[in-house]
Fold each of these.
Amino acid sequence: MPKWKVGAMPRRVTGAMPRGIIGAAVAVVGAVLLYVGLVPAGSAPILVQVGVVVLALGVTGKGLQLIGRALWGPTFDLGLVLSIGWLSALIAAAALADVLPLGNARDTTLTIGVPGYQTPDLFSAHPLGTNGFGLDLLARCIYGARVSLLTVAVTVVVSLVIGGAIGIVAGYFRRWVDIAIGIVAEATLVIPALVLLIAFAAVLGSPTTVFEAVWKNSLALAVVGIPTMIRLARANTMVHAQRGFVLASRALGARHVRVLLREVLPNVALPMLSYAFIVAAVLIVAEGSLAFLGLGLQQPEPSWGNMIAEGGLTELRRHPHVALVPGVFMFLTVFSLNIIGEWARARWDAREAKI
């Protein structure tokens, strides 16, 4: 074995051990601050409590980052790990919400004896507090996640299939096909997305059940998502359409359908999937905007948008947690999707990778 390899290993190990110890100490300090912010400072003003909690989360994150880099090397990305963990936990909670020990999320007749506007207390029966009707905000956020996640999942799949297929055809055949598809896509993108969504909501009507909310919102959001996917698929197809393997396949007499399915599609699919995470983040905000304006799922069925709208100006001043709790859920979900999307784009997008 070469001498430089023998000497490099102890230096890496001895350098990692102090970082891991320091990281553990910093994480413990952050955990103590988090406990102080949640328990002793529970009666403090909400801004003071939020400031202590944010500081504690930052310190804890720094400690976990040091521990991760000591164990798995400098490429360890705590943000990516936490993003994947948050989305996995949220999807699992939304799928298993009916069997989880959650509070009442819909029926106000069962909350007559429950005080309204309870502040968040992780060690109480309502960890994230209650709204004005005594409904549990944690349960409402988890059930509301069903609406947002199902709607966005259906919209992204439809946009990927339809928009991806149209974009691949436009980028491959070019000429008049590309011009015609480009005019329609650009004309759709010119219309403000929110105005287009409001128009569709006015035609389809406001949903009253989760099933109606999913298919109506998905249909409206697909009109916004498909043109974006068309442009992404077209751009990626143009990158690969002139590559040697595509030209060789066409020179050997392969039909256009075979070239598109066997040569172009596999190379376009991964970049499209990487951008799908970012598009999903935008669509979650759009779906929440519809519900906030009263055009999405109607009360008492919970969704993140109508929960934020539930905290009016007066309630926002007196009981800010009513709007902040679903807002934090939406923020963390959108932030996680953006982090995962950026990571996937750096790995899968041929225009971003080093060739």
Note: DSSP finds twelve helices and no strands in the chain.
Amino acid sequence: MGVCKYCGTSAGMFRDEHPACAQKAREENASTLVSITEVMKHAVLDRKISSEIEKLDRAASTEAGMTSPTLTALMSELQSKLNSLIKKAGEDKRAIFDAILAGWSEAARRRAITEPPLDLAQREGIVRIIFALDLPDSFSGIALTTGGVNINGPYCRPIPTNAMGVLSAISVSEGAMAVDFSNLIWMVRNNKYSDDPGIIGTTTFILKDKDEHAIWNARLELMQEVTTSEYVGVYGGPSVRIASGLWWRLGGARGHKEVHLSIQPMDQGDFTITTHAVYFGGKRCNFRIPFSTIVKINSYSDSVGICKDGGKEYIFLTLANGLAPYVYNLLEEITHRHGQREVAVYPIQKFKLEI
């Protein structure tokens, strides 16, 4: 007779659990995972923790070995809660890891879209909560293979250690995407641009102007609206045989012309947004669109459209789900700032009125 691993009583022949006990355990485990997610949300949304991390980040360049007793106390309390919940959640390490990541990502996204644009220290204050968390030993031995698309394009590589697994999983989450783009908008508004390739990526283009800075790089697909036409109702008319191999066609109708519009892929290549223009480079298409020539930017569910003065709309299909709105907001911010810089203020000429 088998013994139920949940309640310790007889479970029947060749069985080690009661269906009711197993169902109850699954429900309790799901509830525990939700609690882990909520704890992580609270940790990111609580400005005390991120503010202390911001202070350490700002002081790091001037005071080596800077510590924060306040941060230590806050993180100890957070770690105690998580350790208790992790022990209760069971042995599914991946589910626990996903619950922690889901809580961090959702809270980071919420802060990025509700707060003013984040400067670099504020960005680090949110991202480095995972560093400061120092996940417990129960995660040792997890070998993750993270795959997907982050803000710099397609991403896939094996992660040999727990720490790298956590950081890499964060880098492809929507929360990290939202925080990074919030920081990029802050750079544009304050005219302060980072040279860190971890933030802006590495551009493959030779920038045209001396004071031009790359802001964001990715690999996207170029789409354009294509017009095709065909004649419908074409009739060739009757044919009359005159001699062997010789026919004479009489009458005939050309039919009417129908025009069809469709969005077709044109190319796939590197895409860079700079302070002055948008660059695209692929196998067939290579061009630069200065912001001074852009008349409209359109936002779609999975792409952004740039309408050039006197030309067709260029549609850039993003390769990452959920990326398009952030790219649109960044383009809108740059074009707005660029337009403000382009406006020239001329003195008002005064005329003396003689009566």
Note: The longest strand covers residues 214-232.
